[in-house]
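If you are new to this repository, start here. Below is one unmodified record pulled from the training split, so you can see the exact layout before writing a loader.
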Amino acid sequence: MEAAKAYLQKTQKDRKQKKAVFILQKTESSKEPVTLVSGSLEKGKAVLITSYDSGESLVDFASEIGDDTMPFTEIKTGTPKELSEDLKAAGVDYEAALATGSFAVVLQGEGMVQTEADLLDADGGCDVHDGHFIKTGSGTSVIVTK
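And here is the target side for that same chain:
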């Protein structure tokens, strides 16, 4: 996480000096909570692509850098079996999720989520748009994809 924060600080400094920054970085260790995948600065606009080892790391990093656009206070991801208690408590079709779901996410907070895979099920507090965009409710939301 410190390396990503240092990069953000350097990028901000470079932007002030109107330098372009292009980085493509691969890490050998997946144990880092935050990894900078790539970044660029063009015409005063910084674009950073980051990868996180867990939903918790995403929430922690957003808080640490003062990202007030992060709507979620908790994010848990896993297979339907790994998150079985959350799925059952939310009232999603657990048996269908177990049989065909490949990925599940539990979110705390109200926000918009886009899935790459087709949606299998979402709890009743979610408002689904076109099968890939989900607006979560203000409490805990559960989403399962195929």
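Two things worth knowing about this chain: The chain is about 25% helix and 35% strand. Residues 2-16 form the longest helix (15 residues).
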